[in-house]
Amino acid sequence: MYTREEAEGKRLKNPFDTITEGIGINRLTENFLMAKLDGAFRGTDKEAVEMSRFLLKNDGLFLGSSSAMNCVGAVRVAQSLGPGHTIVTILCDSGMRHLSKFYDAQYLSQLGLTPTAAGLEFLAIK
Question: What fold is seen in the domain 4-123?
Fold first, then answer.
């Protein structure tokens, strides 16, 4: 979700209030400059935590925060497009590097991020 106002060097070093590490990069890499984007979705830490636990329980995928957030975005795209489309995302990290925060129940509890969803209702899906 790059904007010129958030270009590298124009904001604080860590301006994002998130436990989802790596989200909110404020620079455009060369490969990203070539991308033809139709839009972007903003997700929350709560959605990423809930999605990671949903995918672990239901699909056996032990994902990191970035992968979980990518899945939140993929579901948002699917919701906006409706049935009959194929959605692809990248699972770019595992949960192994996220044990001290993203998978730490006490840490998440302190931030009010304890996962509670039984399904995908946190994304308004029944």
Answer: Rossmann fold (3.40.50)
